[in-house]
Amino acid sequence: MSSRDPMPLAGVFREDVQSMHAYAIQPSAGLIKLDAMENPHRLPASLQAQLGARLGALALNRYPADGINDLRAALAKHARMPEGFDIVLGNGSDELISLIAMACDVPGACILAPLPGFVMYGMSAQLQGLKFVGVPLTADFELDEAAMLGAIAAHRPTIIYIAYPNNPTANLWDDAVIEKIVEAAPGLVVIDEAYQPFASRSYIDRVAKHGHVLLMRTMSKFGLAGVRIGYLIGPKAVVEQVDKVRPPYNISVLNAEAALFALEHADVFDAQARELREQREVLQRALRAMPGVKAWPSDANMILVRVPDAQKAFDGMKSRGVLVKNVSKMHPLLANCLRLTVGTADENTRMLSALEASL
Ligand code: PMP
């Protein structure tokens, strides 16, 4: 091959990859960014300076080593990891989801998750060449117990994902149904607590009752979406298998130090999460009083709403300077739904007036 023409993709790149689209990130310059469940607060100025000094002093000439173990220990403590459990870090929980699919690629393997749910569960199955079974939620976005148990019996999934709470519906499902799913699972169950800072309960105190349940969390919603740290907690022998497929040095020394620093100042982030939970209630009240809008309960830093015409509302809000996520095309149950991230009090006020004017 000597021509400078682009090479033929067929026969080199997988056909399904050729027909895929890369994960789309909405351009947001100049807009109030309420589309990705980020914490709207930056690090306070005094902490920015301290972190800058800490990062500047790092040995960037060395591969990540001890700092990663320090962060693993700090996260294990922060999450109250049970005895006999271990923790593995990912470059965001997105990476952990891919690693789990890779480690569990046994013949006939299958990933099962309720739908609508987080897109990476299905994508990890597709990329690894595994079957994905999506089980529809009820019209009010609750787990369909019979459908879940039926699908588990029929497909014998290797991995089940239960988001706790779910994205994009923002709700926490019934624990009694989750326990039945956990008991019926023939393989791994991953409880995804990405939104834990905003949730009214956690699975952490129950995780040690089972030998096949993993708890996944991220620092993204805590306030470090730009840092990319996810973590997976589970029985040692199980976590060890995922760790074996992890690329060496997957967490940079800069990321690890920034995350350690944030944990040392967890009170700052906890206060921000508290304020966002209060703001969520303010938003809920305003949305429920808005004619034509249905808002569902939320245990996360987002609220799912249904409006008469989601595309019109999305475009109208964008033209008024507010970026949210139009999730209506993601799943038939989400027809005319928008996902609104909870922002600062000022951002929320502007978002509400943009929505009202765009219905
Ligand atoms: N799980 C859920 C349910 C999510 O909504 C997200 C991101 N929005 C993630 C995992 C991934 O988070 P990250 O890769 O930033 O850790």
From TrEMBL:
Entry's Gene Ontology molecular function annotations: histidinol-phosphate transaminase activity; pyridoxal phosphate binding
The keyword Acyltransferase is assigned to this record: no
Record organism: Caenimonas aquaedulcis
Pathway note: Amino-acid biosynthesis; L-histidine biosynthesis; L-histidine from 5-phospho-alpha-D-ribose 1-diphosphate: step 7/9
Sites of N6-(pyridoxal phosphate)lysine modification: 221
Family designation: Belongs to the class-II pyridoxal-phosphate-dependent aminotransferase family. Histidinol-phosphate aminotransferase subfamily.
GO terms classed as biological process: L-histidine biosynthetic process
Cofactor section: pyridoxal 5'-phosphate
PANTHER family for the chain: HISTIDINOL-PHOSPHATE AMINOTRANSFERASE (PTHR42885:SF2), HISTIDINOL-PHOSPHATE AMINOTRANSFERASE-RELATED (PTHR42885)
CDD domains with a match to the protein in the record: AAT_like
Superkingdom, taxonomy of origin: Bacteria
Residues annotated as domain Aminotransferase class I/classII large: 43-355
Residue runs in coiled coils: none
Record flagged with keyword Transferase: yes
Assigned EC number: 2.6.1.9
UniProt name for this protein: Histidinol-phosphate aminotransferase
Assembly mode: Homodimer.
InterPro entries from the UniProt entry: Aminotransferase_I/II_large, HisP_aminotrans, PyrdxlP-dep_Trfase, PyrdxlP-dep_Trfase_major, PyrdxlP-dep_Trfase_small
Name of the encoding gene: hisC
Enzymatic reactions: L-histidinol phosphate + 2-oxoglutarate = 3-(imidazol-4-yl)-2-oxopropyl phosphate + L-glutamate
Keywords: Amino-acid biosynthesis, Aminotransferase, Histidine biosynthesis, Pyridoxal phosphate, Transferase
Matching Pfam families: Aminotran_1_2
